[in-house]
Structure formats: structure tokens, C-alpha cells
Amino acid sequence: MQKFGLYIPTRLVFGAGELKNLSQQPLPGKKALIVISSGTSMKKYGYLDLVQKQLAQAGVESEVFDKILPNPIKSHVEEGAQLCRDSKCDFVVGLGGGSSIDTAKAIAVVVAMGGDLWDYVQGGHGKGKPVTRALPIVAIPTTAGTGTEVDPWGVITNTEVNEKIGFGFEHTFPTLSIVDPELMLTLPPKLTAYQGFDAFFHAAEGYINRTQHTPISDLYALEAVRLLYKYLPVAVADGRDLRARSKVAWASTLAGMVEATSSCTGEHSLEHAMSAFYPKLPHGAGLIAISKAYYKAFKNDAMKRYMKMAEKMTMQKSARPSDFLDALDIMQRECGVDNVKLSDWGITPADFDRFATNATETMGGLFDFDPRFLTREEIIDIYQQSYK
Amino acid sequence: MQKFGLYIPTRLVFGAGELKNLSQQPLPGKKALIVISSGTSMKKYGYLDLVQKQLAQAGVESEVFDKILPNPIKSHVEEGAQLCRDSKCDFVVGLGGGSSIDTAKAIAVVVAMGGDLWDYVQGGHGKGKPVTRALPIVAIPTTAGTGTEVDPWGVITNTEVNEKIGFGFEHTFPTLSIVDPELMLTLPPKLTAYQGFDAFFHAAEGYINRTQHTPISDLYALEAVRLLYKYLPVAVADGRDLRARSKVAWASTLAGMVEATSSCTGEHSLEHAMSAFYPKLPHGAGLIAISKAYYKAFKNDAMKRYMKMAEKMTMQKSARPSDFLDALDIMQRECGVDNVKLSDWGITPADFDRFATNATETMGGLFDFDPRFLTREEIIDIYQQSYK
Q1: Which of A38, A39, B47, B267 shows the smallest number of beta carbons within 10 Å?
Q2: How distant is the Cα of B302 from the closest Cα of chain A, in angstroms?
Q3: Does any CB of chain B come closer than 8 Å to the CB of residue A372?
Q4: pLDDT of A247-261, one tens digit each?
Q5: What are the transmembrane regions (chains A, B) (predicted)?
Q6: How far is B265 from chain A (nearest CA, A)?
Q7: Which A positions 17-36 lie with beta carbon below 8 A of chain B?
Q8: pLDDT of A220 over the 70 cut
Q9: Would you call A181 an interface residue with chain B, using a CB distance cutoff of 8 Å?
Q10: Which residues have C-beta within 8 Å of that of residue B155, sequence separation ≥ 6?
Q11: Is B12 within 8 Å of A6 when comparing Cβ atoms?
């Protein structure tokens, strides 16, 4: 039995309506920088207002930084860090999707450590300097997909060099995370499906990971796979179904715990390369588009693990690894995303070569975790199969 | 879907031989009070020596307090706290069974907060004052049963008033825990079985708990139940089987995570009352002795949960809750503890009344978590059935 570690120091508070109890939680400072997207929904649905009122009730002042894009960029980390320093905030709240929470994590690092995010990023043009501190982070996700509320990871795009890279350090685990499925009731079906499949692949990749999976990540992963297969189609079909939203939110958090205890594999590198060049491609849609070809590639390399996932999904005994591919196909059909293809976002075969280069250069380490090492030809073939 | 929290801030390091890497872990101070039992094994097997050498290698001095009894007592908490203060230790290492680690936790509270442990204990003669800090705690279990390495709980007996009470606060989660199954290879079969069943009941009680169980505690509990049913008999039969020892150690840690996320039930109150009066009765043996009568009492009150546990144990579909009772019986036979009875430790029917009073007075709150509230007559009947 292997050696492994488990360290998820985040205080997780899960449940419908729990955002209304934020003021009763232990808060890590006296003034918060609240990081939200450039969209309107955090204001329109009253979530920002609620957070500010709850903070005020606990005697905590706040400042708002509302510029984050769906694919968050490095220059906004710098701008947010400056605002954080100028307004003397002592902790950072990420409210919204993964982009806002990931930017909050990056701001927390840059403010505490000084310098530039790419001083600390590993891979690409990052300098990989050690991170020894960060401002405390509070995560309040309003989507179910990234799992960033219980893992140390963030993904930021450096537009100057077209690098979309994951970063993460012990100090970027959120101190406190409020996962309140009520905040997710208004998400449209398509986004629900994209984000839900992001969570699904965090779990599946962490489970088939050849070297990083552990007994605890396996436990989290199989439960996330089981829950998402069962409840994601329900949440996609009826977004107001609070029970299905709750199950999907919990599965997404579990999948985040997989990311904290195992690791994503090459599938995530393949996708990040695409959305680095095509920022309008939603991360989850990119993953869905390449997933069939990606998982087919390892069908004979992780047979037992494919069958185990299939069994958790279908609740039936599995006799062959392709049962997982079939179950994945059914799930994508039930969520209305079985026809997602790369050409939908303007990607052409002329992109595949630079995708392959970017994938292996910026987050290439993840390919080492695949059940078998993919050749460059196989990588391009995965893009080719996912094209149309 | 219910509301729940998850907070286990402990850094867990799991694996055979990991104690030899202690010096590479982040240590929370410069001088450690190492708390060990009054027995000889920590010295005889070289574990104390190894810990001291590893600490020294990391530049950490240490002092040893070696008086802990199998049922640890309050006066040793006071003596250890005095030694800790006098020798200016800034963290506490619990090395050994649950008794040493629990005492380390109690010392960490008393040194940081001042006063007496019963100032902070809730129940019995405890004053229930809030605990706002504790010295950092490092846990190095050499047995697999208590789960104290990943939960905030400890159990100390106040011999002046015959109260064996559990305590626990956010600050008594260990900062660091090293679970090294190699340290468990020398445990004799009987103790292995007793301790393994302690872990099993942490999981089973946390799973049938009517009000405190959560989606995450259920996940941990069912995996612990599954692993212990399969591997505890193997570890009892051949203590040198490192794989079985590892599986049992991991299951025990998972069961500790159940204690941190759900709670024990009345079974633990019933047992603590017995060993408060009969300190030579091993906690696990006491639990085994009363388990058949205890679980029979709720057979029709938690039917689905009994069946689910039975399915995890036998790997077969269960159609009736008594399948769990049958599987428990098989497991106890395979571990050679199916004939454990209260009379073996000198307990007589004349004790039952004071047991029942002690159980409901000192840790009576746990009865609220049972699938159904037991009457005093039913409590006495459980002792009666477990007598011979």
C-alpha cells in the first residue's frame, strides 16, 4: 500500500442558504477585497450585496474589484493587487465562478509576496519562485465545476505570452469556503453542463492518474463520478431543482478534493492550450469536445479503473473498459452536450500543431500522469478526432 | 440535502516507513514534549529514539514524559503540563496509543489556557469553559484504533470523581500526524482486534448516527467498515502482514475522520462508563462485549443503513438489516473475539445500575444521536445481555 498525504485545511461550510450565515463564520481579517466578474449577475441576483451586508454584520469592511473575465488574465491580478494594497485589505474574497476565485488566490499571493504572478508560476515563462505566504482567502463559488474552493489551484492566462497555466501553493487553500447551492439555481443549462463536466473530469482524471492517485482521492473521485452521472442531467434539465443542484455542487467540491489529493492529467493540458488561444471557448466545453478521443486512448491502459468508474455510473457490473466510454456517451447525451466539437469555436486543423506545443510546454507535466505517455502524433490525433 | 461542515486541518502523512521522514515535515516549534506510555515498548522498539533523532535532525530539542496509563488520567495531564512549562516546550508530541496522544492534546490545552482540564471538559463535573488556543500537537500513533490522529477528541479519566469523558476543541486537531503502519507490526493479536473494533465502531456509530452523519462522514464510514471487515482478520492472524496492517491503519484513520465529521453514539457512552469503573477493561473489548446487544436494539430503526453496511462488508446485496448483525458476528469470530463478555473483567450485574447512571450523566449527549432513544431499562438490558 502506497505512501500518501492528505492536507485540506479549508473550513468548508456546505448547504442551501449558508451564505446568509457568513457573518457567523470565523473571518480572517478586518477588511476584505471582494473579487467578482465583469458580468452583471453578482449584482443582479443580490449576491454581492448579501456578502457585503454579512461582512458588515461581522464588523468587516470591504472593497469590490469587478473586472474578472471568464478566462481570467494576469493584468487583472496586478490591478486587483494594487487595489488591495491601496485600500489596505487584509484578506481576499473570491465570489463567483472559478475565474473570480482563482484571481482572488493570485491576488492573495502577489500582495503578500510582492512581485508578479509569473515570478511564482511553474512552467512556460514562469520563474517558479517559492511562495511562503499569502493573504487569507475566502471562496464563495456560484458555479459547480472548478472545485477551487477546496484546492490550492488557480488558472490564470498571461496574454502577453499566450500561456494559460495552473498555479497553486499550500498557502492558496481557502481558509473558509461557503458552498451554497441556492446561488447556483439561476445558471443556464448549457453552462451547468459545461461546468459539471469540468468537475466530472477532475474526478475521472484524478482517478485514472497513474502516479498521483491515492486511497483518499479514489474515494472522493468515485463518489463524484457517481453523483454527477446521476444528478448532472437532472440539474441541466431543471435548474431550479435544489436537490439536484446540491448533489452536483457537492460532487464538484468532492472533485476539488480529488485535485487537492491526486492531480489532473493530460486532458486538462490539452484543453488549456485550446482556451489559451481561443478565450471564448468555455473550459468545460473544451474538455467535453476532446473527452471521447482522450479516454478512448487509454482504454487498454487503465482497464480496472475504467470498469470501476463504469460500475459507479451505471450501478451495474462492468466486464470491459469501454463500458466507461459508453456511460460517458450516455451522460453527455442526457446533458445535451454530445455534439460539442472544436470547430464550433472557430478552431481549425491548422491550430493543432501550436495546441500540441503549448500543451506540452506550459502544463506538460500532467502528461506524465496519464495511464500511458502520449506521443505528439497521438495528441494531434486527439485534437483531430474532436474537431467535427 | 442537509447542511454540513468539513474541517480537518491536520496534515496527514501516511505510509510504511514515514516516521523516518519526520525531520522533513514542517514542525510547529523548537522544543517538543514527547508524551509516551509508562510501558516499555516505545523504548524497546526504538520508536522514542527514532522520534528524538528525527526531531534533533530538524533542530528541535525534546523532553520526554513517560507515565501514561492505558486509561489515561487527569493527574498525569497536570504533571505533564508542569513538565512542559518547566522545560519550555512549545509543542507536544503524542507517541503511542490513543492514551498518549489524548494526554498530549490535554496537555496542549492546559499549558496554553491555564487552569485544570476539567475547567474545559463538558459533562460530569466539567465546567465547559471555552478553549481558544492550544499548543500545536503532533500525533504519531503506534496502534490502529482511536483515530485521534485526525480528530480533535481525547478521553481522560478523572479518578477523583470516576468520570471518563471525551473532550475536544478546534484547537486540538493535531497539526501534523504521521501514520506509519510499520510501527504497528509488533502489536499482539488480541490488542490488534480490540483496537480494530474500536475503529470499526467509530465508523459504524458515525454511520447510524441519526442527526450528525453527513455525506462526507458516510463516505469515510462505509470505506472504513469495508476495509476493516476484509483486513482486520488478516492483521489479527498475521501481525507481520504489512499490507493488512496498512489497510487497517488507513481504515482507522478514516474512522477518525468519521469522528471529526459525524459523532459516536450511545455505544461509546455505555463503554466509557464500564472502563471508568474497571480501568483494566480495554476500551475495544468493552465495545465488542456490548456490540451485539447494542446493534440489535436498533435493527428496525436504521434499516437502510444496516443493510448498506452489510453490503460493504459482505459484498453481497442485503435484503434485511440483520445481515449487518450476522456480518458483525462473522467478523468477531474471524478475529477471535466473539466470546468477549463483561464477566471476564470482574463486572457483575450489581454494576449495571451505576454504569447506566454514569453513562447517561458523563457522556449522555451521545444517546441523543442513537437511531432511537434508549430507555434506562433498555440500557441495563444491553449490559445484561453482554454479561456472560
Answers
A1: A38
A2: 22
A3: no
A4: 999 999 999 999 999
A5: none
A6: 23
A7: 17-18
A8: yes
A9: yes
A10: B72, B98, B102, B164, B165, B166, B167, B272
A11: yes
Q: CB of B250 within 8 Å of any CB in chain A?
A: yes
Amino acid identity for residue A151 in this structure? D
Q: Are strands B4-14 and B176-179 parallel, antiparallel or unpaired?
A: parallel
B187-385: same fold as B11-183?
Answer: no
Confidence at residue A388, expressed as pLDDT on a 0 to 100 scale: 85
| End-to-end Cα separation, chain B, in angstroms | 43
- CATH 3.40.50.1970 given to domain B11-183: yes
A247 touches chain B (CB under 8 A): yes
Residues in chain A: 388
Q: What's the confidence (pLDDT) of residue B1?
A: 67
How far apart (Å, rounded) are the C-alpha atoms in residues A282 and B65?
59
One-letter amino acid of A262:
S
Contact B219 A219 (CB under 8 A): yes
Residue-wise pLDDT tens digits, B298-328: 999 999 999 999 999 999 999 999 999 999 9
Predicted local confidence at residue B18, as pLDDT: 98
Q: Where are the domains of chain B?
A: 11-183, 187-385
Q: Which CATH superfamily is domain A187-385 in?
A: Dehydroquinate synthase-like - alpha domain (1.20.1090.10)
pLDDT of B163: 84
pLDDT per residue over B186-227, tens digit each? 999 999 999 999 999 999 999 999 999 999 999 999 999 999
**CA atoms of A99 and A94, how far apart (whole Å):** 9
Taking the CA of residue B279 and the nearest CA in chain A, the distance in Å comes to 35
Identity of the residue numbered A331: M
Question: What pLDDT was estimated at residue A279?
Answer: 85
Residue type, A2: Q
- pLDDT tens track for A160-215: 988 888 899 999 999 999 999 999 999 999 999 999 999 999 999 999 999 999 99
